[in-house]
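SAMPLE LOG
Freezer: B-3
Tube label: C17
Construct: single chain, 128 aa
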Amino acid sequence: MEKDEIVLNFEQDLNEIAGLIWGYMDQKYIRVIKSKIDGYRGECEANLCKEAQLLQALMPFLPEESNILQMIIDALIYNDVIDKSLEEHQELSTLYRDENKERQQIKKLVYKLIMFKLIKTIENVSEK
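STRUCTURE (predicted):
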């Protein structure tokens, strides 16, 4: 073969490989997780905690603060979504279980923050 007969385009090949990997990850994992999250979110939005209900009731009286109130309500919903996932998958509690209760609370909080970031990332990726 002559040198000019072979056209190598590594960038294109890498992009195609990345697309195949992303498609596989999306189909196998991300869609499943997103579906679970959407289910939990629907349940949590239908059964708002009392704090979120109170904030929702205040919104018409504080229109200038409605964006902040909505952000707090969303954070409460995310917290409920994460709690529901922890209840359904109790094996995850081994990640933060500790004999020292104070340290366990800190570990659980860190775990919830990681879950929150993961959920937000999955939501953002699936919107695109």
